[in-house]
Write a structure and sequence with these properties.
By secondary structure, the chain is mainly β. It has two helices and 15 strands. The strands form three sheets. The chain has a seven-stranded antiparallel β-sheet with strand order 1-2-3-4-5-6-7, with no helix packed on it. The chain has a four-stranded antiparallel β-sheet with strand order 8-15-10-13, with no helix packed on it. Strands 9-14-11-12 form a four-stranded antiparallel β-sheet, with no helix packed on it. Strand 5 and strand 6 form a beta hairpin. The protein is elongated.
């Protein structure tokens, strides 16, 4: 059992050290209680770099001047990675959105704070197909041959392809199909002379692992009659499961 002498500080220096430690613990306790009251929380690396920040966002007050609360995360070099915040001075609305940033501060991905629906970025391209069927690629082969082809990196689990098709002459028939990595995928499309009928193949599963290269080919052939079996890819996109 310790004696009363053991409980005394080991000299004036020891007493000062204990007092400083007690002051530090009281400051940390006050900061923690303040964080509980205000919702403010900041996390730093051992080097002192801010990496997580929740609470007031001083530079983006609400349109009425009141304080905005948000969340931000940072890289070890201090650059912003993600933010849940509104930018009323930029968008004109108080609605918060989530945004992902590159190391240079450019917004890469986020939801639309103005409409509240879908993506704000990145912008996504879309394509047009040719409307006049005689401009479409075709074949007069009796066996399936490649008419269109592409290769993509797999990002989503599935895909859909929309194809317009026709034969050149009345009474002629043909077929169009989609090959994925050399495997016929989806329903084989039967074609006639229509001047342009639209069919959708999919959604269908994309083979392979994430970022694997996937080979896609649209093939066609003539079954009966004269002229060509023609087809045009109107749109294609990858989608979630």
């Amino acid at each position: 059992m310790p004696s009363p002498a053991d409980l005394l500080p080991d000299g004036p220096d020891g007493f000062a050290r204990r007092l400083l430690r007690l002051e530090r613990e009281i400051r940390e306790l006050r900061a923690a209680r303040s964080s509980e009251r205000t919702g403010a929380l900041r996390t730093y690396t051992p080097a002192g770099t801010l990496i997580v920040e929740t609470g007031p966002i001083a530079e983006y007050p609400h349109l009425d001047g009141s304080e905005q609360q948000g969340v931000r995360t940072y890289r070890e070099d201090g650059s912003l990675v993600t933010a849940v915040q509104a930018q009323p001075a930029v968008t004109g609305v108080d609605r918060q959105s989530w945004m992902l940033y590159d190391r240079s501060g450019n917004a890469l991905l986020g939801d639309d704070p103005i409409s509240g629906l879908g993506l704000a970025g990145p912008y996504l391209p879309f394509s047009f197909g040719r409307a006049w069927y005689l401009d479409w690629e075709g074949t007069n082969s009796g066996s399936f041959v490649d008419v269109h082809q592409t290769a993509i990196y797999k990002q989503h689990a599935m895909a859909t392809v929309v194809i317009a098709h026709t034969n050149d002459t009345a009474g002629a028939t043909g077929q169009v199909r989609l090959m994925v990595n050399g495997v016929a995928t989806g329903t084989t499309i039967s074609t006639t002379f229509s001047g342009g009928t639209t069919s959708t193949i999919g959604p269908f599963a994309l083979p392979g692992a994430h970022l694997d290269t996937v080979d896609l080919r649209v093939q066609a052939r003539v079954l009966s009659g004269s002229g060509n079996t023609r087809c045009e890819v109107l749109s294609a996109w990858t989608i979630k499961s």
